[in-house]
Amino acid sequence: MLDMNSSLMLTTWLTLFPLTYLAHISEEFWGGGGYSKYLLTNFSVELSPQRFLLLHALGVFLMGLGVVLGIAFRFPLTMVAILSAIILGNAFVHAIRSVHSRMYTPGLITAVLLWLPLGIVSLLAAWPFTSAGKLTVALASGFIANCIVELMTTRRPSSRNEE
Hints:
By secondary structure, the protein is mainly α. 81% of the residues lie in helices and 0% in strands. The protein has one domain. Helix 4 packs across helix 6 (132-154). The longest helix has 27 residues, at 4-30. The radius of gyration is 17 Å and the shape is elongated.
């Protein structure tokens, strides 16, 4: 059971996830011509800036909902691990793509400067207080969520849609 100071500190820490997400969205929207242009140029995926913002608004809402539910239903450390896995996965995707293409990808700076440290520090802080089973499920959930988002944003149109 967490005392009042620990609970307040954990709640404050959890708010860092949606706040840094807003910074990440801003960089993806404006950086390097924008993520929509990056997807079209590199993956032939059309994602209008309006749809990009709509999808990310949904993402921020879901992340915020996760924070609220994690606090309300008393699984904040598990939520820290889930959100850490999501942002670390995204940060690794940005880093790998940039290294592979030898170019900047929109979102790289916030992924490396904000999300890598936040994810790593958060996991290291939660690790001693979370059971191995919960931590494994949380990390798997975050990893799967990140994979789903990645597949949705980089899937090329099928030949049926092109006819």
